[in-house]
Amino acid sequence: MKFKTFAAFVGPSVFMMLLFIAAPLVSVFIQSFQVTQPILEQVEVETCTPGFLTQTCTTEIKTVPILDENGKMITETQWVGLQSYRNVLQMDKFWAAVGNGSWNQIMQIDFWKALRFTLSFTLLTLPLVIGVGLAIALAVNNATRSIRGPIIFISLLPFIITPVIGSLSIYWLFVGDGILTTMMERWTGTNISMFAQAWTIELLMYFYRVWHVAPFAFVIFYAGLQTVNMDTLESAVIDGASRWERLRHVIVPHLMPLIIFIALIHLMDCYRVFDEIVGFRSQAHVISLQWLTFDFMTPDDAGNRAMSRASASSMLTMIGIVILLILPLRRTWRDHKGSAH
Amino acid sequence: MSTPKAMQQPLALRLSSGTFLAIWCLLAAFPIFWIAVMSFKSPVDAFADSAWDVILGPATRAGGDGLSVLDVIFGLVVLYFAIRWAFTRLPGWVRHYCPPGLIALGWLVGALVYAIAFVLIFLGLLPMILGALNGILGPLGTPVLGMTTEHYVAVWAENEFYRNFLNSMLVTAGVVTISLTVGTLAGYGLARSGSDLAFWLLIVALVFRALPHSVLVAGYLPVFINSSEILAPIFGEGAPTLYGQPWAVIAVLVSINQPFTIWMLRSFFQNIPAELDEAARVDGCSHFQAFRRVIMPVMWPGVITTGLFSFLLGYNDFLVTALLLDAQNQTMVPAIAGYFNRETTTTDQVEAVAAAVSITAPLFLLVMVFQRQIVSGLTAGAVKG
C-alpha cells in the first residue's frame, strides 16, 4: 500500500487521537506549571452605621476581585514552576511523617493515601482475577455441553454491567442493615457496619473488581482451552502425569500468552480505578489517584475548579502508567526488531 | 463423543467443579437479581432485614399492590413466550415483510414494533384480564406477592429520567456511528500495511489506551469552558461553548475509544484474506473501491462486535460525561449520582434502585441478543494476538 493511501485511510483516526488525546496531554503538562487566579485588588471601604450625634464609621481594607465591563472576574495566569506539584505531594509533611516513622501520618495526605490504595488494589486483584477466571474456565470446560451457553450468559452479566451500577448493586446489599450485613450479624453475633471503616470498604471493592473482571478472563481462557493440543495431553497421561501436573505443565504454559495479555489489560484498567469510589461512596475513607484528579476538577462551593492541582496530580498519575508500561513495551519492541531481521 | 478412559474424571472432581460453577453463577447473578427485586417493593420491604420479606413484600401487599398466584403464572407464561418468539418467530417476520437491502432498518423497526406490542399486552391488556379473573376466582386470586411499579413511574415520569435516557441514547448512538466509521478505515489501513509506521501507530495507540481518562479531561475542561473566547477569532460571534454540548462529548468519547477500536478492527481485518482485495485491484479497483465493494460486504461481523464495545463505553461512561456535560444534557449514569445527594428518605433510595435497574435493563437485552458476538469480540483481540 502506498503511503498516500495509507495516510488517507488512517488520517481521520490519527487526527482525532492527536486532537483529543495528544493535545490535551501537552496542555495538561503546561497547565501543571501554571496557576490561573482572579486578579485581586485591595479596596478601602468605609461603612457607616447610624449613631447618636454622629455616625459611627469604620474603614477597612477588603480584597475583591477586579471585574471587567461584563461583570466577569479578570483572571491572570502565572508560571509557578513546581508549586502545584508541591501542593499535591506535600513533601514537607511527608518527610516529617517519615521522620516520625508514622505510617498513619503519611496516610493523612490525600495523594499518598490514593497512591497506596491504587497500588494495592491493582496488585492484589491481579492474581485473584487470573485465578478465578482460570478456575471458571476449567469448570465450564468440564461441564456438559448443553449448560455451557446459559453459564456463559450469566457470567457475562457482571462484566457488561455499568461499573457504577455494579458497585452500587453490591453496596445496596451491605449498606446499613442490608440483607447480607444482617446475615453476617446473625452469624457472628456482633454489630457490623461495612461502610464505617476503610478496610471493609476496601474488601468489598476488591470483591467487586474480581466479580466484574473475572468473566473477561474466563471467556478468554475458555477460548484458549479449546485449542489445547490433545496429543500433548494424552502423552502426558501416558507418562503418568497427574491431573495437577498436567494443568501445571501443559495447560498453563499453553495459556501463558493469554495470561500475560489479561494481566496487561488488567493493570491498565485497575490503575485507573474510579467508578468503585463513586459507587461505594467511599471518598471519606478510600480514594484512588484518578478520583483525586476528578475531585480537584469538580467545582467547589464557590464554583472554582482546582485545575492546576488537577493537572499536577494527573501528570503524577501518568508517571505511574509509564513505569507500568515500560516492561511490556520493551518486550514488544524486541519482538518487532526480532521479526524484522 | 466419548472421552478416552484415562481422561475421564473421578466423581469427586466433577462434583466439586459443578458446585464451584453453581456458586459462581449465584455470585454473578445475585446482586443484579436482587436490585431488580428491590426496585419493585415499597421502601419498608426493599430494605427489610429478612430476605424473605424483601421477596414477598408484606408491606407492599398491605399497601394494595400485590400479585396473586394466577397473576404470577400468567405473567411468567407470557414473558416466556415473548422471549421465545423474539428469537424464533421475529427473525422470520422481519425477513418476510422487509424489502431486501433494508434489512438493518427492518430489524430496527421490527424490534421496536415487537417491544411496543409486548409493553401494550404485558402492562395494558394482561392486568385488565387478570383483574377480572382475580375477582372471580377467590383464593387463587388473592394477592400473595407484593409488587409495585410506583418507583419506576416516579423515576421516569416525575423525575423526568426519560430526558437522561434520550441524552444517553444520543451520546451512545453518536459514539458508535462515528467511532465505527473512523475506526474501520483506520483498521483496514493498518491491517493491510506492514510498514514500521503502522507498527508505531499501534504501539502509540496502546499507550493512549492506558491513559486514565481524568488526565485527558483535565486537558479538555479549561479549553471547553472558555472555547467561545478561544474560537472567536476563527468563528466570530457565533463561536460555541463546547462545555455541556453532547456532540463535544461524543467527539471526546470517540477519540478515547479509538485506540481500542482500531486494535480490534485490525485483528478482524487481518482475518479477511488479502487476496480478496488484491483480486479486486487486479480488476481495476482503487484501494477505496476495493474497500467499498469487496471488503464492506464481508466485514459486518467484526463491525457489529466492535460496535457493541463502543456502545458499552459510551453507555457506561461516568467520568467524562459527569465532568463535561451540564445538568440539562446529563446522561443516565451521572444522573443517578444526583440521587445520592438527595437520598434522604428511603423512598429516594428505592427510586435510585429503580433508576439503576432501568439503566441495566438495556444491557441485559444486549447480552441476550449479542452473546455470541461479545464472546467472539473478547477472544478476537487476545487469542489471535
How would you describe this protein?
The complex is a heterodimer of chains A (341) and B (385). With 341 residues, chain A is mostly helical. Chain A has a domain at 103-340: MetI-like (MetI-like fold, Orthogonal Bundle). Chain A has helices at residues 3-31, 83-89, 91-100, 103-106, 110-142, 145-160, 163-174, 179-188, 198-225, 230-238, 243-271, 275-280, 289-297, 307-340; strands spanning 34-38, 40-49, 56-65, 75-79. In chain A, helix 5 runs parallel beside helix 9 (198-225) and helix 11 (243-271) crosses helix 14 (307-340). With 385 residues, chain B is an all-alpha fold. Chain B starts with 10 loop residues before the first helix and ends with a helix. The model of chain B has no long low-confidence stretch (mean pLDDT 78). The interface between A and B is large, with 103 and 101 residues.
Highlighted features:
heterodimer, A: 341 residues, mainly alpha, MetI-like fold, two-stranded antiparallel sheet, extended, B: 385 residues, two-stranded antiparallel ribbon, 79% helix
How do the strands and helices of this protein lay out in sequence?
The complex is a heterodimer of chains A (341) and B (385).
Chain A: H1 3-31, E1 34-38, E2 40-49, E3 56-65, E4 75-79, H2 83-89, H3 91-100, H4 103-106, H5 110-142, H6 145-160, H7 163-174, H8 179-188, H9 198-225, H10 230-238, H11 243-271, H12 275-280, H13 289-297, H14 307-340
Antiparallel strand pairs in A: 1-4, 2-3
Helix pairs in contact in A: 2-14, 5-9, 5-11, 5-13, 6-9, 7-9, 9-11, 10-11, 11-14, 13-14
Chain B: H1 11-38, H2 43-46, H3 51-56, H4 58-62, E1 66-68, H5 69-88, H6 90-97, H7 103-137, E2 143-146, H8 150-158, H9 161-192, H10 196-210, H11 213-225, H12 227-235, H13 246-271, H14 274-282, H15 287-298, H16 300-316, H17 319-324, H18 332-342, H19 346-383
Antiparallel strand pairs in B: 1-2
Helix pairs in contact in B: 1-19, 5-7, 6-7, 8-19, 9-13, 9-16, 10-13, 13-16, 14-15, 16-19, 18-19
